Amino acid sequence: xxxxxxxxxxxxxxxxxxxxxxFLLRFYINNTxxxxxxxxxxxxxFNGTDQGLPILLGILGSVFDVTKGKTHYGLGGGYNHFAxxxxxxxxVSGNFTGDGLTDSLRNLSSTEVKSVVDWRDFYLRSYKYxxxxxxxxxxxxxxPTKYLKGVEAKAARGAQLLEQQKIEEAKQPSCSSRxxxxxxxxx
Length: 187
What we know:
The chain has one domain: Cytochrome b5-like heme/steroid binding domain (Flavocytochrome B2, Chain A, domain 1). The protein is built from seven helices and six strands; from the N terminus they run ααβαββαααβαββ. With about 190 residues, the chain is of the alpha+beta class. The protein starts with a helix and ends with a strand. It has a four-stranded mixed sheet.
């Protein structure tokens, strides 16, 4: 009896409707929070020329929304050459034209590759991560490629080399030379 009353009451219908809407919202939020996969052509649309679109930047196939830095990354900004593309190599080469604006890290040293990974980590800390660029670093399903795994391994070797260099430098005696304008030089 009470079950029949519950099933036909106005409040129970509202409760069922609220639960259904909550389920739909949860499903919608979970699906929209997944990271987007970009093609090179799609990413190029987010280069800061269209005020209605966010400004996106790729590094090692990770895509970040850098719109909050639009004075730097937007049209006319000093870092605009990074917007709408993955120009990973330029982060260490300083070549911001033509062939330098590429995602290829071919022939870079392990410490240079580590520097690019450090730049990616900077963007992870400083800007919103919005997705992956399909290509060299991520496949069409968003999975890391062998190339990305190789880059990360090379960066780890670079970190080891830098650590070894610090240890060796610490073994060297510090320079005891001094100089001042009044006293001149002294060793």
